[in-house]
Amino acid sequence: MWWVVVVVAVVAVLATYLTWTAQRVDRLHARSAAAARSLDAHLLRRSAAAAVLAEERQAPELYAAARIALDAVPEEREAAENDLTRQLRTVPLSPEDPKDDAVISASRRLGLARQVHNDLAREAHAARRRRLVRVLLLTRRHDRPRFFDIDDPTVTASRPVAPVSPAPVVAPPPAAGVAG
Asked: pTM for the complete prediction?
């Protein structure tokens, strides 16, 4: 009689563990997909802000890079975004100008969104590599999350450097025990 209780307890623990693992895999993939959508939105915001800035400054190279990034298909997205980042780094930006600040803040947010997306993709890949997940095919309903590898999209404002005044010259203190 006691062995029936042990078998039922083992089956209950095993079923609980399998359910927990399957839910974890599903949650990781759902979070990774949500992060990918958020990353895409941030990419579009930065490209649109760069296009507005390019129109204002009449910079055809920057405008072309922004349009290419806006219209890029997923396979070409990383290259287009890297090109846009290179073009943005050539433009002097000031945080006092609202259009410049929009590009700077969009670039910062994009950097954070890319980091979150890649972290979640890494976690989902780690969950997919577990033996139990592979044996039970717990990921068959989910596509493999893709990493988004681009150059750091953070664009800094170019501020004029204020001249640094030299430190005042201070006489050394007198040596101890020396009377003068």
From this structure: 0.78
